[in-house]
Amino acid sequence: MGSLVEELVGAIGSGRVSTEEELLARYAVDQAPIMDFQLPEAVVFAGSVKDVQAVVRLCAALNVAVVARGAGTGVSGGAHASRNCVVLSLERMNRILELNPDDETAVVEPGVINADLNEAAAAHGLMYAPDPASFRSSTIGGNVATNAGGLRCAKYGVTRDSVLALDVVLADGSLIHTGHQTFKGVAGYDLTGLFVGSEGTLGIVVGATVRLKYLPRDVHTIAAFYPDFRQAAAGVLAVGRARVQPAIMELLDGGTLAQLDDLHGSDLSSRGRSLLLIQTDGFGAAAEADVVRSVLAAGGATVSTESTAEAEQLVELRRNSRGVEVDDEYRVGEDVAVPRSRLVDYVAALEDLAATHGVSLKVVAHAGDGNLHPTFWIDRQGSAVDADAMARLNLALDASIEAALEMGGTITGEHGIGQYKLRWLGLEQPEPVRELQRRIKELFDPAGILNPGKAI
Amino acid sequence: MGSLVEELVGAIGSGRVSTEEELLARYAVDQAPIMDFQLPEAVVFAGSVKDVQAVVRLCAALNVAVVARGAGTGVSGGAHASRNCVVLSLERMNRILELNPDDETAVVEPGVINADLNEAAAAHGLMYAPDPASFRSSTIGGNVATNAGGLRCAKYGVTRDSVLALDVVLADGSLIHTGHQTFKGVAGYDLTGLFVGSEGTLGIVVGATVRLKYLPRDVHTIAAFYPDFRQAAAGVLAVGRARVQPAIMELLDGGTLAQLDDLHGSDLSSRGRSLLLIQTDGFGAAAEADVVRSVLAAGGATVSTESTAEAEQLVELRRNSRGVEVDDEYRVGEDVAVPRSRLVDYVAALEDLAATHGVSLKVVAHAGDGNLHPTFWIDRQGSAVDADAMARLNLALDASIEAALEMGGTITGEHGIGQYKLRWLGLEQPEPVRELQRRIKELFDPAGILNPGKAI
């Protein structure tokens, strides 16, 4: 046998294999903090299922790790390269193979961009519901690998709820099809669900049949400003008690408002210390919006009667609040979820521990799901590393995770464990549960070549 | 060691173990056709998680099969006793342990009746969405074991979509907790999803945290009568094209209407040869109902403007159409699902093959999901078995399954494989997919004591 790279070129052609230094470095990481930088041996750009099978077979034969990757927008390091690995990009497999308006399904290759699928579906009055903040750049394959969430999950579900069937290349290079093309189907064990969220550690998703939902014909957006964050969090429960299910219910704290003002020249901060941003949709959107406005006003909010255009712009600002700054050792974004009734308590706990540890904090939350994204950061003091500040940042971070778990929460609502959150997984899941998962991994990938060191 | 029964009594007390002949016979089967009747060695009625653990540990030590059972309302034989087994009833573990209105969750023991959970939730304006036709008698544990569907799945999802976390006793008697108490959570592999629908073959569910949804504040019911069944099936697609998501969309054929008339003295048959029964719900229910009425009328339906009371009574009749007759060798109910666009074709195929094979047919369908329940039957000729008629019945049944698969469907939309549908599973799932499932089974239950011969 020749070198790994020669073998790869022989298997799928030179146009699909790169060892270009700058490209290797770019494909070595996703958008998560980097714990253990590793340059891949090569990046391959699969153009077909057969390409994926050929690469996996070759890597299996050579005992080389394969790190599958969509757009690399993950924030937990699920696509970080591991030692001596091949990074397998699925970006070029980006065709929508079928869009069936009457079936309300689509069959896509893994590299299809979330927004592109939505655009194609919209032509038929349909939508693909899961909408992570990265929807303009992230791929369906990546969304499946992380069981991605987004803004409209509380009403429309997470990625798992929209995936009906998968084509998966296993660790030996064989191809299987799981699930069903129908909305319902209960034949055998739920292998589809097992692959969703498994971060490319059990197999590589090379195709997906997804369910589409109806584009709402009416959308109402409500902006409710509060004097403080805790009151805004209480507003979330008030909407729940009114038994209204919004499509979107986003909670932004003062720090987030100030940042949006800085970036976009808005004046949100002058209107309150916290913003609850709610969209109702569907045939009942107007009636639901009326109920929402009234319960929020009763809870101390200043509720907009502003034009839809402005309110919708606020949602766009929120949708795009991701990606403005990338996490690094001075700034870490979290992704905990807590039971909804604990939102108020958790927000209070976050504020307390930021004060205790002397770190800055801002919080946005998909509040309908109890899914919070606190960001802790410390200001850089020139180029020198401030060891004390770093220690305080990590203490705050660890304490925020522990507080979420104490309240019955989880360490990751939608971003996944990846590489970055492995250190906390043992706090959430006891050893017997982790051992079961290790044994499932071993069953699917006995040599451990699929994205080693991630997810479990 | 003493006998199995003595050991069981020693482990959990005599009040929890029965060997009474009539009871053994009753607990030997669920409501599916019986292929291989086996009387269990004993029936045990667990009162606690510890009881379940003790029974499983004992059975593991003695290498005795354990068939877990809820209310025994399954129709695929998932709870049929296997040779020399212990039937483990979870009926007595029927407490709702928590109902958290602000979290919109409940924590229940497995023996809680679906309708009882709904009644408790309704007091808070909430509901547990999955509503199998057996909801008045079936248990949450049984619903979880089969990933039960029901009438309102198209809008509200199946059991899997409402289960957040599970407590499971494994084959060695150990207890694990899977999932999360929050709506979202992506830590590790989806073990919860793996247990849901696994029919007690991977572990025994002894507790569940479920998500509740909002009781709709408004419900509109529409009855649309059609001159034939195929036109009614086309009406389902017309509602989809209008992008209205009904809560319930039930399709009943002429045979079903005639039966309902016989049983309830109604005059449905005189009003059409097929009935499409639709409920819209939520804040937009009235507006949605208007759209539905108009598209159905345009498609040739006679659409009711009748009082809500009568239309709702029709839904009740449909809800209760289960259980009037139990399947036996002369009457077999099916549970296929097809992509929605094939509903019309599939109904045509069913009618053709019933005529070809000279068997009677009636069909009801959860049409929003493409999930059909055809029933084929032959009239009994006295007490003698009519071998020719039986052969025709089986030919029709097999042909109906094959037709569904050819159209991209599944052999079971919501009832599960159990024991009865194992014979068709190989038509749907190729050997490598089945082999993966066998290996998962082996991983969880190496001795094969948990509900052997079911599900996969």
Automatic annotation (TrEMBL), chains A, B:
Residues forming coiled coils: none
Oxidoreductase recorded as keyword: yes
Keywords tagged on the record: FAD, Flavoprotein, Oxidoreductase
Residue stretches making up the FAD-binding PCMH-type domain: 36-215
Pfam families reported in the protein's UniProt record: FAD-oxidase_C (PF02913), FAD_binding_4 (PF01565)
Protein origin, superkingdom: Bacteria
SUPFAM superfamilies linked to this entry: FAD-binding/transporter-associated domain-like, FAD-linked oxidases, C-terminal domain
Cofactor(s) demanded: FAD
Protein name: FAD-binding protein
